[in-house]
Amino acid sequence: xxxxxxxxxxxxxxxxxxxxYRKSVKRGFEFTLMVVGESxxxxxxxxxSLFLTDLYSAEYPGPSNRIKKTVQVEQSKVLIxxxxxxxxLTIVDTPGFGDAVDNSNCWQPxxxxxxxxxxxxxxSESRVNRRQMPDSRIHCxxxxxxxxxHGLKPLDIEFMKRLHEKVNVIPLIAKADTLTPEECQQFKxxxxxxxxxxxxxxxxxxxxxxxxxxxxxxxxKDKLPLAVVGSxxxxxxxxxxxxxxxxxxxxxxxxxxxxxxxxxxxDMLIRTHMQDLKDVTNNVHYENYRSRKLxxxxxNGVDNNKAKGQLSTKLETVDGMSPLAQxxxxxREHVAKMKKMEMEMEQVFEMKVKEKVQKLKDSEAELQRxxxxxxxxxxxxxxxxxxxxxxxxxxxxxxxxxxRLQQQQMEATRTLEKNKKxxxxx
Amino acid sequence: FLALECERFSICNEEKRNLSLGGHVGxxxxxxxxVSKSVTQGFCFNILCVGETGIGKSTLMNTLFNTMFENEExxxxxxxxxxxxxxxxxxxxxxxxxLTIVDTVGFGDQINKEDSYKxxxxxxxxxxxxxxxxxxxxxxxxxxxxDTRIHIxxxxxxxxxHSLKSLDLVTMKKLDSKVNIIPIIAKADTISKSELxxxxxxxxxxxxxxxxQIYQFPTDDETVSEINAxxxxxxxxxxxxxxxxxxxxxxxxxxxxxxxxxxxxxxxSHCDFVKLREMLIxxxxxxxxxxxxxxxxxxxxxxxxxxxxxxxxxxxxEPFSLQETxxxxxxxxxxxxxxxxxxxxxxxxxxxxxxxxELKDKERxxxxxxxxxxxxxxxxxxxxxxxxxxxxxxxxxxxKRKAAAETLSLSQPVKKDKDKKK
Lengths: 426, 422
Hints:
The complex is a heterodimer.
Chain A: E1 3-4, H1 16-27, E2 29-36, H2 43-51, E3 74-82, E4 85-93, H3 108-126, E5 140-145, H4 154-163, E6 169-173, H5 181-197, H6 211-222, E7 226-227, E8 234-237, E9 240-247, E10 250-253, H7 262-272, H8 274-307, H9 323-421
Parallel strand pairs in A: 2-4, 2-5, 5-6, 6-7
Antiparallel strand pairs in A: 3-4, 8-9, 9-10
Helix pairs in contact in A: 7-8
Chain B: H1 2-7, E1 16-18, H2 30-41, E2 43-50, H3 57-65, E3 82-92, E4 95-105, H4 117-136, E5 152-157, H5 166-175, E6 181-185, H6 193-209, H7 222-232, E7 237-238, E8 245-248, E9 251-258, E10 261-264, H8 273-283, H9 285-307, H10 322-411, H11 416-421
């Protein structure tokens, strides 16, 4: 996307990593580690050994000592400092896990806890006013497998299957000092076989560009799952003070890579991959939770309105869109639909009006025509009458004239006769 | 912001124990782990240069980054201000930097500059908006999102020696809540030392009196607080840029050659270029990125969400659930659409009723008219009938007379003959 440019001299942005380093030290770090396993598998001892501190002590007993009737999820926070770096470490443990007679659903409180941490983060991320966003999400889950030497128990499989898509699962063989190296090898092979069979996705070490690192990663991969031993006591062996477990037949040293994989675990968990565990939690597990949660929302929203039979909204959430953008899209669709509807209604309306107006016009024309017709008739009658009258009056006038003439004549004759009689005329 | 960050360790209500370690655990490598990850990912930095055409923006960028970024000389005849972003991939040792330089073309050239700041604000907001949209997506990938948000705005002040132009004040005021601003005096080789001193004081006091918030180099981290504090006092930086080299002594340095002397870019007694480079790139680049994300972007996001009607519920009550708000918003929104639809239908129903009533009236009028005509016609007809009646009467009367006269003349002998004999 960008154009490659060569620098002709030192600019100085190579100091960016230092700036980042400086700021991160100032900010401090957080890490949340969850430990799950039946009681007595050495979880607390291992934690103490890992962090070289008495996280669990007489005052703050480990999960196996806090006997519970049902599975609890409890956490303890400790602040530790080393080399100027501050780490807020939260250990989440699950006393009661796997200890009941009926362990069905004993993983549910664990799942609920992980989800509730995701929910908290999602809520604080979604606030309008965002301030500090403490990250209490579970970054890693150490799952302790009892050193039976045979294979995974159904509970182990069930637990890992249910949690592998919610959290980084690192399975560990606990109390590895009860297995001989050969037994341990067999056990590991068997476990890995079963893990693959059940398609369980345990935490994977990322590949890097560095060849050296990749070789190390490969070495670790070959030793999975790591077999660990923990100890709270320091013993002197050959003049050295080491953490170990004293047996009549010798000392099992925690940090001796011939004895167990503790150092590999420690190096991987704390010294090299702690940041990656956080990143995978943030970029993969959390994002999965979030997208599932938000997708459910939009689906529910659609459901509500399908019942009302109104808008024909998309049923599936559009993957590439934020819910707000989706609403915007729907609004636009609706506006277009309304426009269309409006146009249609207008058309229908206009048509109906036209029809009616036309009918009215026709009606008017018809009435007009009839009226004209009647008028014509009447006029004709009128004319006829006039003619008749004229003729009659003429006739009468003539007759009357005739009668008058006759009368006059008669008058004249009578007068003559009268005069004769009188001897007036000779 | 930084104060709140430090509070992080004390915000949890739970008991938090401080424990001491019985040996080397190894988590002191955490900063290193973090750094190596970010180096693998590469870094991204976006610079916005605001200043009049010809003030030396491109030259300064070339000088800062020791490379020739391509640039056609801009003309003064642009219709408006437009922003031209260019992205480059740079590398120094193992550090990869995706650098975007955004130039404001045409700034200050128009006669009416009232709206000059708008394209700049719009560009900054658009980058925030793009990030926000990505952040709100259901399936998002923020960790490999190419961040285009502006991390720093270098505001180039013309070396008049007097004071800030009103365009400068207006523009910086519009930008100060959206981006980190470092004001610089450009072409500083045209101002003498004493003039420069007065000019800097004048500029700073004008910025203060107008409430313009410029970027302060952070002083909370002891490792860099001293140098940052002293640099803050040198603002605004008076810079000179040059990609040409001049031989001074037995070294070739970047400089501008005048008849009266050579202005050396990297000579701190000649100009503040070195200070700018130190602050901008070598010491505070990461802080600029952080401030952009934690302060300016958050402000934009907050305003945008509030505009859309989102609210945090009471902080004392249940924590705000985004899902519930989305759901509520959606219900409201769909209800709104439904209502609009209803309204439109209703409007049509009313329109239809109205028109029907109108047409009915017309119909009625028409009928009345014709009724009236009918009545008139009836009257006329009656008249004609009457006339006819009269005529018939008259005719009858006449005929009677005729008949009577006839009868009379028949009963009277006619004396006519007698008369005629005489």
